[in-house]
């Protein structure tokens, strides 16, 4: 990462890491600020960041090298990708990183975040930076002014990337990308993901369909209809949206996606907004086992039943799908989620919602098949650059 403080580098670093881990690429973020606090404490004067302060410059360089060494060790032993989250604001620092990665034969991409929107910068400071350990028990205005001084110190020594021999991406004011020498599979994936990102706060609401006929019989798959209780949930869902999202309904700021299957379409039928059906949101396909109960599978196909219990993530139903297949087809849904600026309600199924939840919450993908996704319950995420809030809202007793 490259860029001045309070430009959203750490937020973007987290988003990239969530995405890469979700598609199966082990990734870890190494935040140099955390290393600095551990080594030198959190109560440092803003003069520590002055490029003319030789002692501060030396200490900052030491802690950056410490983080860099640990990052490289982690990549060589545990992971496929690591993100070095720091300002890295000078040519000298970037040359150091480049030389160190070259020694280890590691591919390197610089991502520079450029933002001159003072309102957004001030919001990032007030909503994010003032809650750091650096400003614990310090008046907000004093902390705000101190951080603005810190930024001024970085600005004095800041050097924008200009070396076109580097592999780099520049993200300018959240809506423009400049790319240079992007020619690897993983860096190309990251660039495409970055093209979808924005920084506007919004809500994402996940809802499983209402109770269906197959739920009553404990059968998997199929394309059954809602039961009377499922119909009641559909009504309750519409009431909740009207009570809690009416302002979004008025200004067209709420979107709704469902799968193509009857039970999700019927669950969303009373919502007073347009619905978009997406095939990628359909339930995991059980192939030859569609319409069966797990007791029937255990009795008639004991080897398959045991194989599924052993590893639900990679187990593939005969003629059907594995969770890894579901994740692959949901990748375009993730792009759509990241690019939409509206609040969004997604009405889908247990397996697909497990996968989407694991992405939004950064849950280890191996744990996704075991996440509880109860019927008749909303999961409401409020997403901001400064953090994620989750709320569980039961609308009916399941």
Question: Which terms would index this structure?
Answer:
398 residues, alpha/beta, 3-stranded mixed sheet, 15 helices, 11 strands, 16% strand
By DSSP, the count of extended strands is: 11
In DSSP terms (H or I, runs of 4 or more residues), the helix count works out at: 15
Question: Structural class of the secondary structure composition?
Answer: alpha/beta
| Average pLDDT, all residues | 97
Largest sheet: 6 strands, mixed
Give the helices and strands as they follow along the chain. HEHHEHEHHEEHEHHHEHEHHHEHEE
Strand order of the largest sheet: 8-7-9-6-10-11
Shape: globular
- What oligomeric assembly is this protein in? single chain
Taken as a percent bin, the fraction of beta residues is 15-25%
Helix content: 40-55%
The poorly predicted ranges are none
Gyration radius, to the nearest Å?
A: 24 Å
N-to-C CA distance: 46 Å
Question: Can you give a write-up of this model?
Answer:
The mean pLDDT is 97. It is built from 15 helices and eleven strands. With 398 residues, the chain is an alpha/beta fold. The strands form three sheets. The chain has a six-stranded mixed β-sheet with strand order 8-7-9-6-10-11. A three-stranded mixed β-sheet has the order 3-4-5, with no helix packed on it. Helix 11 links the parallel strand 7 and strand 8. The protein has helices spanning 9-22, 32-40, 54-77, 91-103, 118-127, 140-157, 185-194, 213-217, 228-244, 246-250, 262-267, 294-300, 302-310, 323-339, 350-361, and strands at 27-31, 81-85, 110-114, 168-172, 176-180, 202-208, 254-258, 275-277, 343-348, 377-384, 387-394. Helices cover 44% and strands 16% of the residues. The two termini are 46 Å apart.
């Amino acid at each position: 990462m490259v860029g001045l403080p309070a430009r959203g580098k750490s937020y973007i670093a987290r988003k990239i890491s969530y995405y890469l881990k979700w598609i199966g690429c082990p990734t870890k973020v190494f935040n140099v600020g955390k290393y600095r606090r551990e080594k030198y404490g959190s109560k440092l004067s803003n003069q520590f960041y002055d490029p003319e302060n030789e002692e501060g410059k030396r200490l900052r360089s030491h802690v950056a090298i410490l983080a860099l060494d640990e990052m490289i060790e982690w990549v060589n032993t545990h992971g496929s990708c690591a993100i070095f989250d720091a300002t890295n604001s000078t040519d000298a620092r970037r040359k150091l990183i480049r030389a160190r990665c070259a020694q280890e034969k590691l591919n390197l991409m610089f991502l520079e975040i450029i933002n001159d929107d003072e309102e957004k910068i001030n919001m990032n400071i007030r909503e994010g930076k003032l809650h750091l350990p650096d400003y614990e028990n310090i008046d907000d205005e004093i902390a705000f002014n101190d951080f603005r001084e810190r930024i001024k110190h970085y600005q004095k020594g800041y050097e924008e990337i200009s070396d076109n021999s580097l592999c780099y991406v520049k993200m300018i004011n959240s809506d423009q990308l400049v790319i240079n020498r992007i020619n690897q599979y993983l860096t190309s994936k990251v660039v495409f993901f970055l093209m979808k990102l924005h920084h506007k706060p919004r809500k994402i609401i996940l809802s499983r369909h209402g109770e269906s006929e197959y739920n009553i019989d404990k059968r998997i798959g199929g394309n059954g209809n809602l039961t009377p209780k499922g119909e009641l949930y559909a009504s309750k869902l519409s009431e909740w949206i009207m009570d809690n999202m009416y302002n979004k309904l008025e200004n067209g700021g709420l979107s709704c996606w469902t799968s193509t299957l009857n039970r999700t379409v019927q669950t969303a039928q009373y919502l007073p907004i347009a619905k978009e059906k997406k095939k990628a949101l359909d339930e995991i396909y059980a192939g030859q086992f569609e319409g069966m109960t797990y007791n029937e599978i255990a009795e008639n196909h004991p080897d398959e039943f045991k194989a599924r219990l052993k590893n639900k993530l990679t187990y593939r139903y005969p003629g059907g799908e594995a969770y890894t297949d579901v994740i692959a087809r949901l990748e375009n849904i993730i792009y759509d989620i990241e690019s939409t600026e509206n609040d969004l309600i997604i009405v889908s199924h247990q397996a697909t919602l497990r996968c989407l939840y694991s992405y939004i919450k950064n849950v280890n993908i191996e744990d996704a098949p075991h996440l509880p996704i109860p019927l008749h319950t909303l999961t409401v995420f409020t997403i901001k650059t400064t953090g994620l809030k989750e709320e569980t809202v039961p609308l009916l007793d399941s």
